[in-house]
């Protein structure tokens, strides 16, 4: 009675096995053909082919290693550089000036360091500039800059890595950090590093801004021939920013830490975060493939990198504008905003899922991160509103 049934299933599984074997054969045929061709060549050709294969293995092996190893990744990185001190004066102020005198000088429309140069040996360095240099160093010195590596530019058989689920997370994270660095260098040139926008632009800061706006994917060879690769440009920006802060510490540069400049800086940051939240929203609407969405990971890590950078930069802003924040009674709301940012950085899923927000199986990591982005942005807008009163 059971023999026909058993025979049926035997035939079915036999056909399935032959089908699988046929597919595997098709996939392995190029490798088998190359193996046969290789064994029939003379030793000279075999040596050249072996060297090429070893070179390719080393080339992609190094690239894969660099994309998977995130050296010195630490969401608490600002704590080593930025120390909150309620007695600290404004950035750029004479180191021996008290906070109330520094704030009064800035509100009166004069740069503190200009009035203090005659009797001060040093002025307060900018924590914003220090954190910016740390982030650049993290991106291009402590880690390899992935977006301009040749293997990254070649992609996966010509397909950009960002369109695959592989090897693009670190590159997206680095470009997210870089977005925040670029925004900061622009504001340093336009508002923070000069007096009320009417004084001469600091040439060191201008050079840093130009270098940070260098293309993120530039290799040694471009469309116009030999050129400077991206990491070289960013290292040049790092050097000029450090030189600016050294001059600031010697009272030979300007950092205009006024409330209206702080308001403009927060406006720019909230606009940046709002733009990124819209990128996440667009990807959420475009796909609900859960763990199978190849673009979800790079969207997530770009936004995460931006938050990672702005967490440090906003903690540094708290220090540089300490007197302004205390004078406007912003300390509590500022601390809450920093806590929200740090809480968002605890979200580090191993695999990024972009499922439906009502899904039971596939979580929506993009929606969760987008919520945290908007929470931070709403707090920035609230702080900006208080400064504007």
From TrEMBL:
Where are the bilayer-spanning segments?
Answer: 6-31, 43-65
Keywords per UniProt: Membrane, Transmembrane, Transmembrane helix
Q: What is the recorded name of this protein? A: DUF2333 family protein
Species per Swiss-Prot/TrEMBL record: Mesorhizobium denitrificans
């Amino acid at each position: 009675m059971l023999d026909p049934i058993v025979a049926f299933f035997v035939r079915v599984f036999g056909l399935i096995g032959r089908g699988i074997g046929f597919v595997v054969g098709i996939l392995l045929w190029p490798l088998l053909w190359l193996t046969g061709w290789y064994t029939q060549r003379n030793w000279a050709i075999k040596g050249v082919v072996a060297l090429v294969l070893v070179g390719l293995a080393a080339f992609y092996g190094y690239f894969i290693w660099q994309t998977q190893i995130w050296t010195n990744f630490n969401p608490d990185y600002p704590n080593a550089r930025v120390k909150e001190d309620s007695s600290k004066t404004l950035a750029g102020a004479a180191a021996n000036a008290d906070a109330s005198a520094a704030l009064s000088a800035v509100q009166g429309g004069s740069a503190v360091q200009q009035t203090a140069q005659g009797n001060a040996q040093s002025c307060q360095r900018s924590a914003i500039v220090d954190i910016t240099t740390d982030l650049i160093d993290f991106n291009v010195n402590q880690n390899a800059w992935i977006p301009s590596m040749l293997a990254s530019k070649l992609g996966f058989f010509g397909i950009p890595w960002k369109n695959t689920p592989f090897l693009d997370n670190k590159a997206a994270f680095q470009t997210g950090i870089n977005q925040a660095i670029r925004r900061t260098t622009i504001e340093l040139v336009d508002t923070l590093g000069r007096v009320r926008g009417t004084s001469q632009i600091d040439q060191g800061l201008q050079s840093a801004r130009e270098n940070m706006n260098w293309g993120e994917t530039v290799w040694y060879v471009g469309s116009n021939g030999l050129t400077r690769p991206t990491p070289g440009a960013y290292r040049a920006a790092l050097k000029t920013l450090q030189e600016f802060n050294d001059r600031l510490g010697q009272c030979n540069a300007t950092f205009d830490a006024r409330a209206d400049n702080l308001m403009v800086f927060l406006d720019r940051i909230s606009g940046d975060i709002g733009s990124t939240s819209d990128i996440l929203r667009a990807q959420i609407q475009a796909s609900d493939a859960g763990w199978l969405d190849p673009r979800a990971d790079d969207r997530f890590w770009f936004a995460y990198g931006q938050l990672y950078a702005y967490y440090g930069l906003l903690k540094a802003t708290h220090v540089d504008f300490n007197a302004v924040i205390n004078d406007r009674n912003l300390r509590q709301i500022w601390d809450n905003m920093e806590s929200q940012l740090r809480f968002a950085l605890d979200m580090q899923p191993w695999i990024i899922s972009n499922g439906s927000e009502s899904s039971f199986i596939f979580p929506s990591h993009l929606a969760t991160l987008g919520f945290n982005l908007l929470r931070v942005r709403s707090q920035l807008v609230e702080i900006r509103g208080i400064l504007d009163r």
